[in-house]
Amino acid sequence: MPALTVPPGVEGIVAMHELPDPAWESRWTRIVVPEEVKERLLNFTLFSLRHRARIDAVRLPVHGLIVLAGPPGTGKTTLAGGLADQAARALGGTVVFVEVDPHAFPSQMLGESQRSVARLFDRTLPDLAGRGAPTIVLLDEVESLAVSRGGASLETNPVDVHRATDAVLAGVDQVARACPNLTFVATTNHSVGVDAAFLSRADLIEDLALPNAAAVEQILRDTLEQVVGSAGLDGAKLGPLAKACVDAGLDARRVRKLVLRALASRRELVLKPESLRLEDVAAALRAEST
Ligand SMILES: Nc1ncnc2c1ncn2[C@@H]1O[C@H](COP(=O)(O)OP(=O)(O)OP(=O)(O)O)[C@@H](O)[C@H]1O
Ligand SMILES: [Mg+2]
Hints:
Elements (H helix, E strand, L loop, with lengths): L2 E2 L8 E7 L6 H4 L5 H17 L13 E5 L6 H16 L3 E6 L11 H18 L5 E5 L19 H20 L3 E7 L7 H6 L2 E4 L5 H16 L9 H10 L4 H13 L2 H5 L6 H12 L1
Helix pairs in contact: 2-3, 4-5, 7-8, 7-9, 8-11, 9-11
Bound molecules: adenosine-5'-triphosphate and magnesium ion.
């Protein structure tokens, strides 16, 4: 399904998509995280989208807010989209996925960012949810939106930033009450920089760690098979290479990029990528570590 056009005059939204979309399935299936993490994410999302309207928020405070935290390149942003796609499949209808622009609220504009944030939560998002479809809103890099009020000095963290954070908190509460068909997925690679009251509102916080050897092996296999096919791959040698990647502290994105670097290391490989060998990838890793 095509991306939806963001209506004119709507600020703070980068993109909107109608899901499910076959092209989005790999954002879920090819992101390697423990199966129970995916299970929890999907369960919470479905619970929130299906049942929040009927729940007494004092007895069971469901905000419809999931936080994905973890180092760069661990799949947070990709998985958020994949989650929306999976939710649409499970619900058997359309889910609208809305991406909020984390940089649309420049904190240096005194007073302005607070007003923009308030507008986003008071008007823009309720309007989008008001169209009726289950809606998942991505707050990517939320540390830039809900800046910790306790963490930094007023000098580095102008009063306006604090007000913007207050506006985000009030906004999340307001949307939780008024839009039961809307669920937020927030990502951050700097959770200490995210306001504690924001994190306290999360129904589920999942920490995505750097991949372990088994995960790296799976990611290497997936990336290499894209290039050389499954027949051309000597699976037995993947284990040691995966371990070397873990020892080098590579995140999942860098593991995939390693294959790309190996491909670009020699002209023959650029012309004939299917002749890539594991030795080339190992050499790229050594080159990276030196
Ligand atoms: N856990 C993973 N399993 C497999 N591939 C991954 C994983 N994490 C990341 N990747 C690869 O890296 C790409 C970028 O990941 P993504 O942008 O989702 O990471 P992120 O955690 O949001 O990073 P950042 O904190 O820098 O925004 C993915 O599209 C995928 O190719
Ligand atoms: Mg990201």
